[in-house]
Write a structure and sequence with these properties.
5 helices; mainly alpha; elongated
Length: about 160
Amino acid sequence: MPATVQQIVSGIQNLTNTNTEIIAALEKTTIVNVIFQGPATVGAMNKYCQQMSTEVLQPLYDNTPALTDDAQAKQIADVVRDFVGVAKKRNDLFVAKSGLYAKMFFGQPIAAGLRVMEGSGDTLMFMLVDYAPSQKAAIQEQAKIWSAGMNAAIAA
């Protein structure tokens, strides 16, 4: 069954909220408590990946036609801009905290999680360009920001 615009918007907003949870875990992480914050961070990343799959990607895959209403397409572009802005902050924190996680045994699980987040996010951006064609340029611009942030976080 095709997804509604509201389903997709809600799914992306939920991802933004989960990114906020990841940010909170990252902001709390210090050399003293990394052993406790590592599992919280990895758990929030897992939640994010599950949400991406079930709340956004799968509904878009389910024979969802491209939007013909420019107002709805703009709504998608706006929620993507918010999502990418929060993801950029998350990625900046991953870069800043990467040394802490690498010193403990969380470096590899976090790196693996980031790669999954990158792949699913790239897929989402490609799908949204097709879903909201009148906002192609705006979504592609956000995709560039998304990609640069993910590359930096993974490289750290």
